[in-house]
Amino acid sequence: MLKVEKVSKSFSGKKALDNVSFSVTEGKIAALLGENGAGKSTLLRILSGFFEADNGDVFINNISISEREKYLNNVGYVQEISALYGEMTAYDFLDFVADLHKMAVNEQAEKIKKVTKMLELQDVLMQRNETLSKGYKKRLELAAVLLFSPKVLLLDEPTEGLDPNQKDALRKIIKQYAEEHVIIISTHTLEDVEALASQVLLLHKGKLLANKTLAEFKKESDNNLLASFRQATKN
């Protein structure tokens, strides 16, 4: 379980997050929604350990984020903007990430083979990252995170820029991984929310306005997700 307790964060005296609390259990995919500037990216960066909260705490299965190394061993984060080293091949990048996690050599080979097959990267393993299509870059970044099987997976705009077939394939992988893990997707693509999410977390001006099942959230406006979003964020 991921549990967020009364998390706040300010920048230059302006609150980006204001006393945010929620939890997401294993087997659930939570969609983090909100307008630009609502605090979504700030929250993801706190959950992933990039930022420190001013107040509050975050737990993964009762491990506090203050226990930094133990906590970070349980969380994976795929950003919207590519973080690949362009001069590396796809295989070199996966090998590099495995080294960072201090995997044994035999374990590295096995896990790289597993994630490569899962994300269908076999044909581009020897290709330099800078030459990969956006779809392959997305899959490679996800593969790198899945190498160490994090209990909590944070995905920022996971299908942005992908073609319909790539989106469908990636959604299947995300849903499969969620069966025994916690996943949070931050997205403006409501199609992804409909296809993936069972829980909606709505941020507005740094506050958590809604923490509901997708069905409950849609009922706010005649079972229409876009209308419910507009209704909740109109003020």
Number of domains: 2
Number of helices: 9
**Tell me, what is the CATH class of the largest domain?**
Alpha Beta
- C-alpha-based Rg, rounded: 18 Å
Question: What is the string of helix and strand elements?
Answer: EEEHEEHEHHHEHEHEEHH
Tell me what the CATH architecture of the largest domain is.
Answer: 3-Layer(aba) Sandwich
The low-pLDDT segments are: none
Structural class category? alpha/beta
CATH H-level homologous superfamily name of the largest domain:
P-loop containing nucleotide triphosphate hydrolases
The biggest sheet amounts to: 6 strands, mixed
Strand content: 25-35%
The backbone outline, from C-alpha atoms, is globular
Mean pLDDT: 94
As laid out across the biggest beta sheet, the strand order is 6-7-8-3-9-10
- Rounded to the nearest angstrom, the distance between the terminal CA atoms is 32 Å
Please give the number of β-strands: 10
CATH topology of the largest domain: Rossmann fold
Proportion of residues in helical segments: 25-40%
